[in-house]
Amino acid sequence: MKVLLLTGGRGSRLTPLTETRPKPLIEICGETLLSRILRFLSEIGLNQIDILTGHHGDKVRQHLAHFPSSDFSFHVVDQQEVTGVGPAVMMNRDRIQETEYFMLIYGDILFSRNMLANLLNTFRSIQKPVAAVCLTNDSRDYGNIYMDHNMMITDIIEKPQRTDLGNYILAGAFILPSCFLRYIEKNDGKIIDAFCDLAREGSFYASIWEGAWVDLGYPWDILTANHIVMGEWTESRIASDVILGDSCIIQGPVVIEPGVVIKYGTNILGPCFIGRNSFIGHSALIRNFTSIGENSVIGFDVEMKNSVLFKNVEIGRLSFIGDSIIGERVNIGSGTVTVNINIDESPIHVEFKGNDFDSGLHKLGALIGDRCWIGAGHTMLPGTKIPPNSRIPHHATLSRIGKPLND
Amino acid sequence: MCGITGIASAARVTNKLLKSLLNLEYRGYDSCGIAVLDGSGIQIRKDQGNVQSVSDSQNFLQLDGKVGIGHTRWATTGIPNQINAHPHLSCNGDFALVHNGIISNYRQLREQLQAGGHRFVSETDTEILVHLIEDMYNKTGNIEIALRRTTQMIEGTFAFAFITSHAPENIYCARRESPLILGLGDGENYIGSDHNAVLEFTRRVVTISDGDYVVMNRHSAIVKRLETGDVVNAPIKWVNWDPELSKKGGFPHYMLKEIHEQPSTVETVLRIEPGAIHALADEIHQAARSYLIGIGTTFYVATIAQYYFARLAGMFIPALSSDEFSSLAQIDSHTLLLAFSQSGETYDTLQAIRHAKRSNARTAAVINVIGSTMVDEVDLSIMQGSGPEICVLSTKAAMAQIFVAIRTAIELGKRRSFLSDDDHRHVSQVITESPAAIRRVINEAKGFINTIAKRYAHIENWLFIGRGIYSGVAFESALKMKEVSYRHCEGIPGGFMKHGTIALIEDGVGSLFFVPPASEKELYELTIANAEEIKARSGFLVGFGFGERNPVFDEQVVLPEVHSLVAPLILLILGQLFAYYSAVALNRNVDKPRSLAKSVTVA
Fold it and tell me: Nearest CA to B167 among B133, B194, B195, B129?
């Protein structure tokens, strides 16, 4: 069976992190979403992968070059100006029509264990078009799926306005017949309408996924993805060459990659991930659900919790990083605090394209794009967003005579 | 309860025996085994564990035999281990036997047999059967006589089957109280504890009556009386259950599948021909007094049914637990007993029915399984037609039974002139439309239940609280929660809170409220008042209800308003789903919770 993997989305709600990369190249615990999906595909013996690229497509191509050609046969198509899932799928029409059924996967989803194996099993037992579905607490951002006791999808209500719907939604992985392209065509490229047509004909089935699942829509979904991946861990893996200083404490499952140096008195309360060749200074407190990308440097007495640091990040001494996401090659000066809660504990708001957006979260720190240089001594309010390549001077550094230096 | 199966064929049977055992696994799953006859005699493979794991470790499929029996066990006498697993072998290895039931005089028989030189290896009551048969065969040289004499010596209940190297084409089986059916194939015949054992191979089924035995080979099956040895003419039934229906489809668990089946099982109940419902309503109408009985979930079905009889027929019909029935009920020939049983084999309920019959009471039952013992024993049986229910926990079957009760209550209300013609039409209409509401809640609210269940799966102690009919919903939901999540969970009528239970409110105790629609003003207000009492003691509160959110609850699921007749059943579904998702979050064995069996056929 052929696989069509979509990686071209802009991910505009995921800024600042998607300004410099496509969503599928976001790394969770040392593995990109794309690599993770490919790993699950290879587990179920699917290795003929057609990939549609768009936003930062060159980076996807570079990433794919790391996979040995013996493992996968990739066919990469740039979707250029084409937007929307339906039209993107149609671009691959000729190749899809070579096979009876194909698997369609959205490249911005992350799930615990192998949801794709589950999907394939369901397909094998019923031999009908099938969609992975999972439960959410709110169907509004997706579509509510209605099904009967044979798991036949009877109706799909796309992005319902009702707040009292929380049920199965389409989970972004499907096995579809090649004739499905005609349904897309008939519906002017609107894929949801094509799914509805399929459902109305009584030939669209659900494959229930009870494991965890997230679609990376907003920056904080990266934290959820991080939880899902770490939630799978049942044991620790610490590379043999890791240098661990005296009086360090490690609790719970952790993954510490080769070349990591951890200095005296540091506490690591798992689950935590520390990528290769990173350096953790004296007396740091790395609390649960912290993921530190490779080649990062964490200074003396830094506290971190529930945060994702991409590669090559430097955090200066005496800082606190909580509920935050920090892009690649960011350098944060010492004594920086990411405030992660409003005083009245109200939900934290984030700005998107000039609009105020309620994240629904009671704890959220800062969202910092790639290659930012942030001076020492800052206090970042909850939900602070910093665009990539920003350069922010030290906070109110005083001269010997008491005048701010950099005003 | 245990499951037994057997196949006589012209081809190798191990594959089918394994399939059959897998389909019977819900009847018991602490150990299993098979025995086949090959050229050299009887070969046995058995061990502790579920069917697939034992089959894998013991290589069931390696055995080569055209006649074989199998067993999946739920231990009653003797702990689950390899030695106690069935089949059991006689001293000389000529007989191998599987058994479902309890032999009450086995100790005494065992001593006698031991004195006669028989060596026992297990702690089971079953093992005496195979030694007795061997003993009798050695004395008489006739297998059937040996079988019949054996059954005359044993006290208790049984359905057993054995194979013997003295008649290598045959399977022998017999029944007293425990269920047994025969499946007739094409050049291949089967026995089984129930339809699931054979449905994958054939639809032609014979129910073996109490006190009969069968001599079966691949060509024929002859049913005879144990007492006389006379041939019995047993009717062949065509079972039209789709075997796919017996399977999970793609659902992760049978329980979830069966929860999803509820709209259609309710529709099936609404299609039951009115004659049967009218007959039941007439029985209740004519009786001087009636009782509703059941045990476990079916007792709560009876409890909920009580409220419908009160509301729709203005009649108080007490619900009694089957096991307490004989201690409480006033029984005479003007008494009607209405029992609820999914399997039709429930021991306690059958005992209550027999007790009532001894005082010449009339008996009726709502039953799911065709051809079950209870169908034969009651004066009037209503088949609810819910199809096989595989998950040990009852969801769809219980829901269907409640709807049988509602239909009966509506008819009774008409007979008692409690419902006017208009009322009758109105409530009938409401009930006819209820499957749509059930379908809606299943398709629109699972995500909320899942989120709450996952988030609070760490809570080890729960109080489930409701008032009026919702107390019945709380009881049944609490039972579901206990059974499948192994969390301590108590169903409580709201009125009880102040009278003791509220002392339990502390950190780590969750309270789940089943809140009536606000249109039931009095019940609604009383329920909310209970919630306030717990809130005042800093208790953690979850609310399942309708219409508007209420700030008293820490977490809540709010559904669109439905008619007050249907509302309790909608909340019952939320209770089922909450138990289900809690169990999934806790990684429990959802379809086969520890220590439970699908139908309890022993005391």
Answer: B133
Whether the predicted pLDDT of B269 surpasses 60: yes
The ipTM (two decimal places) reads 0.74
Q: Nearest Cβ partner of B444 from A125, A137, A144?
A: A144
Q: At B603, is the pLDDT very low, low, confident or very high (cuts 50, 70, 90)?
A: low
Contact between residue B389 and residue B396 where contact means Cβ atoms under 8 Å apart = yes
pLDDT in tens, B65-86: 999 999 998 776 777 789 999 9
Query: Taking 90 as the threshold, does the pLDDT of residue A79 lie above it?
Result: no
Helix then strand then coil, % of chain A, to nearest 5: 20, 30, 50
Res A407 pLDDT > 50: no
Q: Is the pLDDT of residue B568 over 60?
A: yes
Q: What's the CA gap between A366 and A384, in Å, rounded?
A: 5
Name residue A388's amino acid.
P
Do B444 and A165 lie within an 8 Å CB cutoff? yes
The amino acid occupying position A404 is P
Determine the Cα–Cα distance for residues B459 and B490; give it in Å rounded to an integer: 13
Continuous H helices in A204-325: 221-231
- Which is nearest to A219 in space by CA: A381, A352, A330? A352
Residue of B nearest to A162 (CA): B444
Would strands A101-106 and A168-177 be described as parallel, antiparallel, or unpaired? Answer: antiparallel
How far is the C-alpha of B373 from the C-alpha of B209, rounded, in Å? 8
- Distant-in-sequence contacts of B138-144, Cβ < 8 A, 24+ apart: B143/B167, B143/B170, B143/B172, B144/B172, B144/B213, B144/B215, B144/B224, B144/B229
Output the CA torsion B593→B598→B601→B603 (10° steps).
30
A53 touches chain B (CB under 8 A): no
Which of A141, A149, A170 is the best substitution to test chain B (most B C-beta atoms within 10 A)?
A149
Check residue B278 and give its pLDDT: 95
Residues of A in contact with B450 (CB under 8 A): 135, 137
CA dihedral A157, A159, A160, A163 (to 10 degrees): 140
Among chain B residues, CA nearest to A145: B443
Partnered with residue A352 across adjacent β-strands are A355
Kind plus residue range of the DSSP H or E element containing B351: helix B347-358
* Whole-prediction pTM: 0.73
pLDDT at A401: 60
* Percent of chain B topping pLDDT 90: 74
Q: What is the pLDDT of residue A121?
A: 79
Shortest distance between the Cα of B566 and any Cα of chain A, in A, equals 19
DSSP state of B494: G
Give the single-character DSSP code of B87: P
- Report pLDDT digits (tens) over A113-128: 789 988 987 887 677 8
User: pLDDT per residue over A12-26, tens digit each?
Assistant: 888 888 888 999 999
Phi-psi label, residue A166: left if phi above 0, alpha if psi -120 to 50, beta otherwise: beta
Residue B246 has pLDDT above 50, yes or no: no
The minimal CB distance from B559 to the residues A135, A164, A206 is found for: A164
Report chain A's C-alpha Rg in angstroms.
23
Structure tokens at A101: 């059924």
In angstroms, the separation between the Cα of residue A105 and the nearest Cα of chain B is 20
State the catalytic residues of B. 2, 598
| Whole-number Å distance between alpha carbons of A314 and A279 | 9
What is the distance between the alpha carbons of residues B440 and A149, in angstroms, rounded to a whole number? 13
Which one, of B471, B73, B452, B589, lies nearest residue B479 by Cα? B471
Region A169-184: what's the mean pLDDT? 93
pLDDT in tens, A200-252: 888 899 999 988 999 998 999 999 999 999 998 999 999 999 999 999 999 99
